[in-house]
Amino acid sequence: MQALVNAGGKGTRMGACGIEKPMQVIGGKPVIGRVVDALRGSDRIDEILVSVSDNTLKTEKYLKETGVETIMTSGEDFVEDLHDSFKVLKGRYVLTCPSDLPFFSTKELDKFISAFDPKRMESLIALVDKKAYEKLNVKPSYTRDYYGSDWVVSGVSIMDREKILRGVYLQEFFYETDCMGFAINVNTQEELDQARKIIE
Description:
The chain is α/β, with parallel strands linked by helices and 200 residues long. Helix content is 33%, strand content 26%.
């Protein structure tokens, strides 16, 4: 299975700090590097590609120096960038994830991939229990109701690439977790500080 990491956004919620969001250092390594390491550790992932844009040129340089292939997108619209990236990819199913998951681990990633059944699923979306954020003292930016409880979309998913490109609306299946690796995204300075405190 191919993996696509989305790293071309403007990162406006992080503020004007002079450092591209994927290049924020946590535990001695840029967060994008931590995500790539988790993907590289999985024998379920055959190829890793990262979508970048003019917003993340330093990220592109870092990835090329570490042997990761990149796809240049506009960085203006997430859905448009996803479609442009999917046109470059070749596999039927693609794992997609954001570039800002500092605690993403190969072990939890493999559990997620194992839960995907292509015989009956067109997509699988990782949902994190809102209670996990309360334990971590992190406030999620967006929640959705799922069977009467609040859950947070982590940004990690598996999608039928061919159907997406044909404009087919995919039937959604959900993977429920309370794992920190899926829970913590680094979108703001507050989340960055919290992630650094946790890793220390």
